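Ticket #4471: structure output looks truncated?

Reporter: J.K.
Steps to reproduce: submitted the chain below (104 residues) through the standard prediction queue, then opened the result file.
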Amino acid sequence: MDMIKNSVVILLLLGGLFFFLVGTIGLYRLPDVFTRLHATTKSDTLGAGLIILSVMIYMGFDIIVLKLFLVLMFIWITNPTAAHIISKAVYHNDVINKEESNDV
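Returned output as attached by the reporter:
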């Protein structure tokens, strides 16, 4: 039973690390603010969710698991909300057109 639990934990950790890596590459390679924000927000939320879920499975049923679940809920709520607010601020301040005019 421990071997199955450990293999699930390892798979979840590897999945979380994969999504963090993809988000980092997206932040580096994508051309504008909105696509960078989309790549990092989605992959960070999923990566953190998978890693926290793997720690929850590894720890078993404990008070720490409840606290980790609350942290996970906090991440799921605040990360997309913050990304929306940042993208709205970029859109309203017309940062995209200012960046394009500096490139010329």
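Triage note (M.O.): checked the attachment and the full token line is present. The chain has four helices and no strands.
Status: closed, working as intended.
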